[in-house]
UniProtKB/TrEMBL annotation:
UniProt-annotated binding residues for substrate: 341
Protein name, entry field: Serine--glyoxylate aminotransferase
Source species: Bradyrhizobium icense
PTM sites of type N6-(pyridoxal phosphate)lysine: 196
Pfam family, any one: Aminotran_5
Amino acid sequence: MQQGRHFLQIPGPSPVPDRVLRAMDMPVIDHRSAQFAELGRAVLDGSQKIFQTSGPVVIFPSSGTGAWEAAIVNTLSPGDKVLMVETGHFATLWRQMAGRWGIEVDFLPGDWRRGADPAVIEERLARDTSHALKAVMVVHNETSTGATSRIGEIRAAMDRVGHPALLMVDTISSLGSVEYRHDEWKVDVSVSCSQKGFMLPPGLGFNAISDKARAAAKTNKMPRSYWDWEEMLKPNVNGFFPYTPATNLLYGLREAIAMLLEEGLDKVFARHQRLAAATRAAVNHWGLEVLCQEPKDFSPVLTAVLMPPGHDADQFRKVVLDNFNMSLGSGLSKVAGKVFRIGHLGECNELTLLAALTGVEMGLSVAGIPYRAGGVDAAMKYLEQRPQGNSPAH
Ligand code: PLP
C-alpha cells in the first residue's frame, strides 16, 4: 500500500474534485419526486451550457460507448453510408460499432499522428454528388493519440460543398476541456460522457441533439429501445427520466457544471492549453517525441509520448506506478507498448501537473531510459513566463 494521494494521470477517468465527491455524498432520493425534478432540470439545463447549445441534451446512465450507440441508432438506418476518419483507436472502435449496426463506413485512413484533415473531408464530400453519405462522424479529441480535430473547420468544409450529411462528433474526452460549440458549429449529435472534462466518476453518457438529428430520428429505421431519444425527451421536459436515473452522479454533475461555469469556460479551455504546452515543453526537453505531429492538433487534454526504440512503455508505466504511486495512460492497440499518455485534464493545475511531470522524469531515470534531465524545469519556466489565463498559440 503506497502512502499519500494516488496520482491518476490517465486521460480519463480524471480525478474527481473534493467538491464533487461531497456533492454526491447524499441520500438517494425518490426519482419520481418534485425534489428530483429540480435536480433533473438543473443538470439538463446546465449541460446545455457546457455543450454550448440551446437544443436538448439527453443523459443516459451509461459509459461513453453507450452514448456512441445512441447517436447511431437514433439517426441512421441499416445500409446507410457514412464518412469516418481514422484518427486512432477510438475512431476505429466507433467505426466497428457502426459496422455492427449495418452501416457502411467510408473510413478515411490516418497515421494516428494528427487529427482529421478538413481538406480531405471536403474533397471526399465534393465527390459524393448523389449525397449517399448520411453522416460525417469524427472524434474531436482522439484520446489514444493526443490529437484533436478542428470541428469548426470540418463544418465549414461541409458547408462549402453544400453537403447535407449529419455531423456527429465524439466529444468524450474534449467536452469541458477543449473549446467546443455544438450550435455554432452546427453539430447534429455531440456524444460525451462523465469521467473526463466533467470530472465525475464514469457512468453518464450524453447526446446533444440538433433539430436536424431529431428529425432524422423520426424517420430512420434502426431498432432501439433503451437509447431512444424521444422516450427520454418526453419525461425530461419536467426533469424526469423514463427509468431509474443515476441520481448521485447527477448531484455530482450539478456541482461539476457549477465549477466549470464559475471558472468560466474560456478560462477552463485556456488552462488546459497552457498545461498541455508546459507538458510538451518537458517532453521536448527530455528529448522524447510527442506522438501528435501536427501542432494545430496538439491535444489540450493529454500528451502521448513515444518511447525511444527498445524501451517498453508499459514497463516504464509500471516503474512509475510502483515507485511514485502515479498511473499514466497506456498505449492502445496499434501503439500499445510504444507510447505512454500523460493526462492533464479536469482537476489539474500548475502544481499537480508539475508533480506529475516530476514523477515521469524520475521514472525515466529509474527505468534507465535515455533522456535529458531538466524537463520539469522547462515546464516550470514555461508556466512562470506566461501569466495565467494567457492562452498559448499552439
Ligand atoms: N471515445 C473516446 C474519445 C474515448 O476516449 C473513450 C474512452 O476513453 C470512448 C470513446 C469510450 O468511452 P467509455 O469507455 O466511457 O465507453
